[in-house]
Design brief:
Layout (H helix, E strand, L loop, with lengths): L1 H11 L4 H43 L5
Length: 64
């Protein structure tokens, strides 16, 4: 019976629950931040592509 009481005691122990909850919250925030930054990176990349195209067009010699 001592083995059974140890298992029950381990299952009822909630001392690490807060740390696990904080870890899950941190993981969700990290995933959200990564997704937002990827979207921002795509937008910034599009702006730089447009600026590069416009600069190349403006600096190219006129065709005759």
């Amino acid at each position: 019976m001592p083995c059974r009481s140890i298992v029950i005691q381990i299952l009822r122990d909630e001392t690490g629950a807060s740390a696990i909850e904080y870890g899950l919250i941190l993981a969700m925030l990290s995933i959200s931040l990564i997704a937002a930054l990827q979207g921002l990176a795509l937008g910034v990349n599009a702006v730089w592509d447009t600026a590069t195209t416009n600069a190349q067009t403006a600096l190219s010699p006129p065709s005759s």
